[in-house]
Amino acid sequence: MLHTSDWHLGRSFHRVSMLGAQADFIRHLVLTVRERDVDAVVVSGDVYDRAVPPLAAVELFDDALHRLAELGVPTVMISGNHDSARRLGVGAGLIERAGIHLRTAAAACGTPVVLTDTHGDVAFYGLPYLEPALVKDEFAVEKPGHETVLAAAMDRVRADLATREPGTRSVVLAHAFVTGGAPSDSERDISVGGVSSVPAGVFDGVDYVALGHLHGSQTLTERVRYSGSPLPYSFSETDHHKSMWLVDLGADGAIDAERIDCPVPRRLARVRGRLEDLLADPELARHEEAWLEATLTDPVRPAEPMARLCARFPHTLSLVFDPERAPDDPDVSYATRLAGRDDQQIAEDFVAHVRGTGPDEHEQTVLRDAFDALRADEAVREVAR
């Protein structure tokens, strides 16, 4: 099976449209399916970049569905936190007749797509992104959180699997932040109660877990893997190796996984230093055709920095200012002081700054509940769209 995720159709990279590159990826995926005799394709969420995607992105998705259906290779897809589950799932019953299985409803977590190979049945369970505040009633959890709702969903998976013929192998598609995974700047925050990650042990009892959400391809355990996004969507992904997993599931559930490289339109690079040094350094010639993020450390902002950078590095997309200053300089930027801190920490620091003492345990809980309520409200509005 070919494991991929996080297509984010319709997304741009800074000011550059990625639709052409996304179309190239779809062609590459279809070619890989054909040339490597793939038996099934799994897409683990974030098919689109937003709940209401642009028309060009919808057309590209439609083209992808037609190409996959024409190959006669079954495809299982779930919705991610960027997708509108209801919109993505429209027509799922009809599309299923063409071998495209869309799983976007929490209630269907325990109902697999059963495919058969020479070794017998393989049950594919689709766990779409489960926003805790929206699915807590479905799973009857007292305190909604990512771990509790995923654990409840996996209980349904294991219960169904127990009714299957002995030797039935199992694959779970899930869209989540699993502990041990390395995030990047391009994933949307899904934290609830101050906790966004879930332990890999939640998925115990199945043969392979095809994860989506984190954009770097990575192996958490032999059986739990992220495919990552097929294209870069932030400069934090400069060192990523964009790929898909080609996974062979043996008769006994043994895993043999191979990374299949994805075509990337242009290499990413980051440079840092004073403007004049960046323009003169011969070692940086290798970055002249890359998409570039430049961090300028000049103590005083130079004149027309972007125009001057683009004269040498024509694909400069991001310009960051981080002036060299003494540690005790009062002009150290507010952004620098906030770097790496989440909303909860920033709010607690603000309370301490205003009052002289930080929030107590009860006040921390009030702040956390406020942030969770805001995220839940945003999720509801995304669904309403």
Automatic annotation (TrEMBL):
Lineage: Bacteria, Bacillati, Actinomycetota, Actinomycetes, Kitasatosporales
Recorded superkingdom: Bacteria
Gene assigned in the entry: sbcD
Record-stated family: Belongs to the SbcD family.
Nuclease SbcCD subunit D C-terminal domain residues: 265-353
Function: SbcCD cleaves DNA hairpin structures. These structures can inhibit DNA replication and are intermediates in certain DNA recombination reactions. The complex acts as a 3'->5' double strand exonuclease that can open hairpins. It also has a 5' single-strand endonuclease activity.
Organism: Streptomyces graminofaciens
Pfam family, one: Metallophos
Cited InterPro entries: Calcineurin-like_PHP, DNA_Repair-Maintenance_Comp, Metallo-depent_PP-like, Mre11_N, SbcD, SbcD_C
Regions that span the bilayer: none
Annotated ranges, domain Calcineurin-like phosphoesterase: 2-216
NCBIfam families cross-referenced by the UniProt entry: sbcd
Protein name stated in the entry: Nuclease SbcCD subunit D
Subunit structure: Heterodimer of SbcC and SbcD.
Keywords of this entry: DNA recombination, DNA replication, Endonuclease, Exonuclease, Hydrolase, Nuclease
